[in-house]
Each structure stands twice: as C-alpha cells, then as structure tokens.
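@here heads up, posting the sequence + SMILES for the zinc ion run so it's all in one place. Ping me if the SMILES looks off, I pulled it from an old spreadsheet.
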Amino acid sequence: MNKHMRQKNLKPNAQNSILSYFTHWLEDSSERLYKKPILFDERKGRLCFRFEDTAPELIFTLCDNGNATVDVIYQNHFWDIVAEFDVMENKTGSGKYYCHGCKEKKLYSSRKHLFQEHVFEPLLDWVNANLNSSNWLCVFKAGGAAWASIVDERDVPAAYLQEDFVTALPIIVNLTQ
Ligand SMILES: [Zn+2]
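bot reply: prediction finished. Complex structure tokens:
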C-alpha cells in the first residue's frame, strides 16, 4: 500500500477526536513538516505513528487523554522517551481550554487549538530539528536501566566508547523512496 493511500485512510469519523484534529492539522501542515507521521496502530484512545523514511524504532504516540511522546522501541522493548508534549487538558468556567501542567496558563478557544499549539506544532519543530540524515539514534543499557538519545554523527564515536553503549542507528532510512 502506498503512503498516500495510507494517509487517506486516516480520515476519521468522529469530528472531535484527537485523530480528527491531528489529521486535519497534518493536511494543513504537510509542507512545513519534513517527515510525515504514518499511522500504524490505533486502539481505543491511542494512536501510534512512525515517521516516513525514519528509523522504525522511533514511535510517536498520541493519546486522547493528552499524553503525547516520541518513544524508542528497540528490539520490541520500550527503551526511552526522546520527546514529550503531554498536555493536561482543563477547561475554564467560560469554556476556554488550557493545560494545567504549564506554568503559564495560556487559554485556547477550542480543544483543537490547545492540542495544536501544545502538541502538534512542538512535534513539528522536533521532527524538523531531529529527523535528518546527520543524526543517529544511540541506545544505551546499564543493569536494568535503558535509555536513548539522538546525537549528531560527529558525537557517535564518543557515544560508542561509553561502557553502556548498545548500538547506533541511522535516523533516516529508505532515502530512495
Ligand atoms: Zn502544558
């Protein structure tokens, strides 16, 4: 199935779902977003995306409860969170939306705008800053702890020398597509 058909299948039924907001935002923002999220798993209130041409270990999870993270799943194990956009959704008496996890209480006229400004736009900035061919995903493990970080290719040799280093994976794959 080609990518564009997959994107079309994203069309939601529920008008007020997070998926609906995200899908519409994606349509409007596709030109600004260097690597598109591709939906591969959808469960009740939880959507999982990989990014086109990007290491499949990087997974963006968007939940109806406001959790939004980019996780590293390496060899079928959760390894780390490399980006976090969680929104703690709340509503004022006058019907405005805000995040009660933020120090500065910024009000939005709709739930859609709250998610757009708190999750989707910061995700876009993260994608455009991190998902490029000069970056590598380094994974580490020590005892029971596992972690991961995105590092510039110039810093990979230093990461490799660390005792806890497991592997380094190129961020961009399938450049020919
Ligand atoms: Zn917040």
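MO: The chain has two domains: 3-130, 135-170.
MO: One more: DSSP finds four helices and ten strands in the chain.
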